[in-house]
Design brief:
Elements: H1 4-19, H2 24-40, H3 42-61, H4 67-73, H5 77-92, E1 100-107, E2 110-118, E3 121-126, H6 132-142, E4 146-151, H7 156-171, E5 181-184, H8 189-194, E6 202-206, H9 209-217, E7 231-235, H10 241-253, E8 262-268, H11 272-285, E9 289-292, H12 294-300, E10 309-311, E11 325-331, H13 334-344, E12 349-353, H14 357-366, E13 371-374, E14 393-395, E15 403-405, E16 411-418, E17 438-439, H15 444-447
Parallel strand pairs: 3-4, 3-6, 4-5, 7-8, 7-12, 8-11, 9-10, 9-11, 12-13
Antiparallel strand pairs: 1-2, 1-17, 2-16, 14-15
Helix pairs in contact: 2-5, 2-6, 2-7, 3-7, 5-6, 10-11
Length: 448
């Protein structure tokens, strides 16, 4: 007997074929309707979100929900403004479906086109953060992908409210199939979704490292994402200290509960005595707890301005705090900084602050992360800030897509060969025809 979950996934799979063929104007009209609907239904969305916030705060008090998840849960007018702006940015992006990536003449009258196309059905499993729904739905709609959403129970009211507002808006666009977007809501549905490798082409998990690792370990469906966000800032001996104060503060304090906030500060020993006291005072005023190695601890332990200072353990270098906690380590070279980052980091986002051009080049070439910043906050590692309109997630993978993933990570390609009766047999044997393999300056959409 087919389960309700499988029925929903099958419906999305069937709808994905139609969605893949919809023209750009139709998709943009649907996106405009989505943005307008969010604006119209602000009070309803915020009202539903308040129910989730009340429940979440009780769970946090009981130790059943982390502070980071509770902070990510909140939806207010500013957050809705961001959702609307993200959708409008996606409207302005080029439609990636049907682009000719390459064209080549195999022989006269035999032409091969490499053409971009949607992946098919995207499964998005996420904790908290209801703004994932409009971000991902807009990108998947524009790229022609059907989408299965599975949000956490802590945001059930918010997810349902936003999903209903968006899908109701899409229904008024005649050619967009209603079943292309599905929302799963019960806890039991997670394992059922993970089993749908026959229908779901790609999974994108968004949440804590434990959550993402669980998804990666329990499905045969390809997974795009990252399990940890252990990011670093390295203050080089030739750094401008004013720049370092600004970048290191913003990278930690601006929003500590996200994956692109730094968890470890590395400081060159030559400037540690000058840099650390003032930097630590800035962190102290923001309520940041400091976990220090021996050298940084000796510099800071007797300062009256520092309240919370502790000795770091080996585990601290591997910990994603998602909170106002920061590990600090003094290093004696850029090589040691790079070694520490590549050893303990999660290949997410790391920054160097330096005025030395050679060290900028060395750091950016040797640090094996999906985003490397030079004299700029790690918090810029974001699909919207990268000009992608929004993002479906941040990937530390080395295949298909890496870093903040926008629509370019939601399309793949197919090969289309156009001939007029050619046979492979004509290209074998003593009198075989020869392939020309000439590059063509032609687009598939202009050929037929």
């Amino acid at each position: 007997m087919v389960s309700e979950i499988e029925n929903k996934v099958r419906s999305a799979k069937k709808s994905s074929v139609k969605l893949a063929s919809i023209d750009t104007d139709t998709k943009n009209r649907a996106l405009e309707a989505m943005a307008e609907a969010l604006d119209i239904h602000r009070s309803f969305i915020i009202q539903e979100n308040s129910k989730d916030q009340e429940d979440a705060k009780k769970l946090m008090e009981e130790g059943k929900l982390s502070k980071a998840l509770v902070e990510r849960l909140k939806v207010d007018n500013n957050k809705i403004d961001g959702m609307i702006e993200g959708i409008k940015d996606v409207i302005q992006l080029n439609d990636p479906v049907g682009d000719t990536l390459n064209s080549i003449e195999l022989d006269e009258g035999l032409e091969l086109y490499q053409v971009s196309c949607p992946i098919g059905v995207i499964g998005v499993i996420f904790e908290s953060r209801p703004d994932v729904v409009p971000q991902v739905m807009s990108l998947c709609l524009k790229s022609g992908n059907a989408t299965i959403f599975k949000g956490g129970s802590e945001a059930s009211h918010s997810n349902r409210a936003i999903f209903d507002v968006l899908t109701d808006a899409i229904k008024h666009t005649e050619t967009v199939p209603e079943d292309a977007f599905q929302l799963m809501e019960t806890r039991e549905e997670v394992m059922d979704v993970l089993k749908q490798d026959q229908y779901i082409d790609l999974l994108i998990p968004r949440g804590s490292n434990t959550f993402v690792k669980f998804i990666q370990d329990n499905t045969r469906i390809p997974v795009l994402g990252h399990s940890d966000g252990i990011c670093h800032a390295f203050v080089d001996s030739k750094a401008n200290l004013d720049t370092a104060y600004d970048v290191c503060y913003d990278s930690k304090v601006q929003y500590p509960a996200v994956c692109n906030a730094i968890e470890t500060l590395l400081v060159h020993t030559d400037i540690a005595d000058d840099f650390l006291p003032y930097m630590a005072d800035m962190y102290n005023k923001a309520g940041v707890k400091l976990c220090c190695d021996e050298e940084s601890y000796e510099i800071l332990e007797n300062l009256d301005t520092i309240n919370e200072i502790y000795r770091a353990t080996e585990e601290d270098w591997r910990t994603e705090y998602n909170d106002l906690i920061l590990s600090i380590k003094v290093v004696d070279s850029i090589d040691n900084a790079v070694d520490h980052i590549n050893n303990y980091g999660s290949h997410h986002t790391d920054v160097i602050i330096t005025n030395d051009k050679d060290n900028k080049k060395l750091f950016s070439s040797l640090v094996d992360s999906s985003s490397v910043m030079i004299d700029a906050s790690t918090r810029f590692a974001d699909g919207f800030r990268y000009g992608k309109g929004a993002e479906v997630g941040i990937s530390t993978n080395k295949i298909h897509a890496r870093g903040p993933v926008g629509m370019e990570g939601l399309v793949i390609y197919k090969y289309i060969l156009i001939g007029n009766g050619q046979k492979v047999d004509d290209y074998t044997g003593q009198n075989a025809r020869k392939f020309t393999h000439n590059n063509l300056d032609k687009r598939y959409r202009d050929v037929l």
